[in-house]
Structure formats: C-alpha cells, structure tokens
Amino acid sequence: MAPRDVIVVGLGGAGSAAAYHLARAGLGVLGLEQYSPEHVRGSSHGRSRIYRTAYFEGTGYVPLVRRAQRLWRALERETGIPILRETGALILGPRGSVPIEGALASARRYRLDHALLSARECRDRFPQFRPTDGEVALWERRGGVLVPENGNLAHRLGAIRAGAELHYGEPVLGWSASRSGVEVRTDRERYRARTLVLCAGPWTRRIVPGLDLPLEIERQVVLWFPPRRGVPVGRFGPDRMPVFIWATGGTRFAYGVPDLGDGVKVGGESGTPLRRPEASSPRLRPGEGTDVRRFVREHLAGLAPREREFATCIYTNAPDHHFLLGPHPAHPNVLVVSACSGHGFKFASAVGEGIADHVAGRTSKAFLPLFDPGRFAARSGSRP
Ligand SMILES: Cc1cc2nc3c(=O)[nH]c(=O)nc-3n(C[C@H](O)[C@H](O)[C@H](O)COP(=O)(O)OP(=O)(O)OC[C@H]3O[C@@H](n4cnc5c(N)ncnc54)[C@H](O)[C@@H]3O)c2cc1C
After folding, report:
1. How far is the CA of 197 from the centre of ligand 1 (A)?
2. How confident is the model at residue 381, as a pLDDT?
3. Assuming Cys at both sites, which of 112, 126, 316, 326 could form a disulfide with 107, CB separation 3.0 to 4.6 Å?
4. Which residues are CB-contacts of 324 (< 8 A; sequence separation ≥ 6)?
5. Phi and psi dihedrals of 203, rounded to 5?
6. Model pLDDT for residues 281-322, shown as the tens digit of each residue
7. What residue ranges in the chain does DSSP mark as E strands?
8. pLDDT in tens, 159-195
9. Thinking of the domain 49-146+216-317, which architecture would CATH place it in?
C-alpha cells in the first residue's frame, strides 16, 4: 500500500480535528478508529461540554482557547452544523480559592468581559444558583456550551471533503517508527506514512507503551435533572442560565450546563479509577451519582431531586492536569496527543490546527512547553 503523509490513530475529539486540519493543509491523511463514529466508550460524548475563556488552570491557556473558539465558528460556517452556543459562564467558590483567583488572573490579563459577583449579586442575577455568603462568583460573557458530537461530526465531514480517508471498526494493534517513516499495524492491514499522530484518549498509555506515561483514567458520571414540578422550564434555558463550575471544597468541583431540552446536566469530580477503559459499564453502579444529587439539592434552586437520565464517560488525567501534546521524546515523527484531564474538548479545534501546523513545518501555537509529553520522563529520570 502506498505510504500516506500522516496516519491519525483515534477519531474522537482531538483525532477528528487533527484529520480535518491535516487534510485541509493538503496532506494525505488516513484516520483509524477502533469503534463506530458515534460510539460512547471514550471521552467525547454526552451532548454538551463547557466552553470558557477565563481559564483558572493557567493564563497560558487563554490565547489557545480563544483561537479554538474562532475555529469552532469557522467550522460551523463551513459545514452548517451548530457547535457552540454562548450562555456566559460562572465560576463559583470561596474568595481566594484557586479557581476564583486563577479565573480572575486570566480575565484581567486578557481583559476578558467579566464581573466578580458577591453571593447576593449572583443569587439576584442568576436565581438558579445558591452560593453562601462566604462565596463569590466570577461571571464571564464569552462562556458557553459545545455539542461534542456535532463538533466531531463537522470535523470528520470536513476532513473527508478535504480528501482524508477515515476507517472505522479498525483497531490499531501496534506501530513502529524510524527516521524514514512509521508503520502501523491493524487487524486488517499494515500502513506506512511519514508521520503518526496518536490521539487515543483513554487508550493513550496502551498505544504509547514505551514512555510509561503517568496518565490515570477515571470513570465519570453525569446526570440530567428536570425542573421541580411547578417551576417554569424556561428558568434553566441557555438564555437565562450560564454554564458553571463550582469549587465545593479542597480540590473538588461540580459543574453543569443549562437545559438544552433534556434537563440541566450536572457532574461532579469524584470519579472512580479504572484499570482499562473497557471496564467502564454504561450502567450506574450502586452509590454512583449520590454526590451529584446532594450537590443539586444544596446548591441549585428549583430542580427535581432525582435525575431523568444519566451517562458515563472517561477522563484521562495527567498528574499536573495539563495536556500532553507534542513529539514523542524518542521519535520526532510520532506525535502524542492527550488533551483531557477533564477539560480538553473546548480546545480540540485548536489542537487539530496546532498538529497540522507542526506536521507542515510551521510553528505550532498549541505545542506549549506546558504540554510537553517528555516532561514526566525528565522528572522521574526514566528514559523513553
Ligand atoms: C464527563 C466528562 C465531562 C467533560 N466536560 C468537559 C467540559 O465541560 N469541557 C471540556 O472542554 N472538556 C470536558 N471534558 C473533557 C473532554 O471531553 C476530553 O478532553 C476530550 O473529549 C478528549 O478527546 P480525545 O480525542 O482525547 O479522546 P476520545 O474522544 O475518547 O477519542 C479517542 C479515540 O481513540 C480511539 N482509539 C483508542 N485506541 C485506539 C486504537 N488502538 N485504534 C483505533 N482507535 C483507537 C477511541 O476509540 C476513541 O474514539 C469532559 C470529559 C468527560 C468524560
């Protein structure tokens, strides 16, 4: 089989974006996905993802997330598929907490349209939320909701239109790399290319075995709540209720998005460690969801105490909660991409563009030193 320019492994959030931008850069792209296009076994399903720009995880993320927004908008215009809806965003928590101070630092440094609200101001303006008097809320205008299934579909369609070949139901079993190129082995075929891009989400450790990456995967549960009987549905609509992240104590968070026709979606950050992605069952386990129901009861006003629906999903967490994005330390023609730690979807469009820029020999704005996949090997002294 004739060699391609690039093989992309995994066509979820990051991989579909990479295939799109690589194909649009004029490169010959083969994308390989182990499951079907709309599968729910990875990290990019669940009908909504929070988009926000006052980034508390570091001011360094702000230019990238703003670039991602412009790219999502361009993708919507190109494909006619709606992806991002602005609702505003709220970060709630104690004054002085890392999320509040971090979001404020980003908002001030980049002059983002924002306001720091006292608990009372927040309750008056957004009666869906019940912060206590020791808490504050940072509101930002440009926050919103992304529909991940639509984003991925638009990237895949755009990639195919630009000439990419995408295969589904074809797991990659192994790969090798040398200076002259890469070879990828699937259950059907061996393929060769100049460059390999590994976007395997929760399967990243398995597909990059040599590096012993300290990534941990975690099962997450999200629940959709209808309004209480007698409470108008419109109170929770995207024109009245912002997306939110609430620092509920220590390193714990809860988050949610407004009712897009299926209830208010709420998740917590207390996941269950998984040994293998395949071990995550789509059913609720006993006790799961209890923390989310308690959060809804104590912090949100007017929602029913029981969910109408639930879903499970997987986080791939780095110890420092930043992404892995850049060349494999031992193979410059192999890119390692794990943009998750529970907050990566919003960046997928800019991550895809950054990958294409790097492969095309341009400076990638997405390959921040913060994301270097080699940073853990350097710390532990191990060799790839
Ligand atoms: C509950 C939950 C809530 C979240 N909330 C937010 C949020 O509000 N905002 C936000 O920005 N982010 C959020 N995230 C994070 C975000 O969804 C992820 O960062 C993003 O989806 C990761 O995309 P990915 O491409 O790395 O992984 P995936 O989308 O899982 O894609 C990886 C793909 O690789 C394929 N694959 C793996 N191994 C192989 C192989 N050997 N051969 C072929 N194919 C393979 C898999 O089948 C999969 O399709 C959330 C995540 C979860 C789970």
Report:
1. 15
2. 39
3. 112
4. 204, 213, 215, 318, 336, 337, 338, 339, 371, 372, 373
5. -95, 10
6. 999 999 999 999 999 999 999 999 999 999 999 999 999 999
7. 4-9, 29-32, 49-51, 84-86, 89-94, 114-118, 135-140, 144-146, 165-167, 172-178, 181-186, 190-198, 216-225, 243-249, 252-257, 264-268, 272-274, 309-317, 324-328, 331-338
8. 999 999 999 999 999 999 999 999 999 999 999 999 9
9. 2-Layer Sandwich (3.30)
Whether ligand 1 lies within 6 angstroms of the CB of 61 is answered as no
- Take atom 35 of ligand 1 and give the residue whose Cα is closest: 10
SS3 221: strand
> Which atom of ligand 1 sits closest to the CA of residue 44?
21
**CA dist., res. 4 & res. 109, Å (int):** 43
- Measured from the CB, is residue 7 less than 6 Å from ligand 1? no
Instruction: Determine whether domain 4-44+149-210+320-380 maps to CATH 3.40.50.620.
Output: no
84, 272, 343: residue to mutate for ligand 1 pocket, most atoms within 8 A of CB: 343
pTM (2 d.p.): 0.97
Nearest to 45 by CA among 159, 117, 153, 139: 153
- Domain map (residue ranges) of the chain: 4-44+149-210+320-380, 49-146+216-317
314 CA from centroid of ligand 1 (Å): 7
Residue keyed to tokens 């983002």: 112
pLDDT in tens, 327-371: 999 999 999 999 999 999 999 999 999 999 999 999 999 999 999
Q: Is the CB of 139 under 6 A from ligand 1?
A: no
Distance in Å, CA 280 to ligand 1 centroid:
14
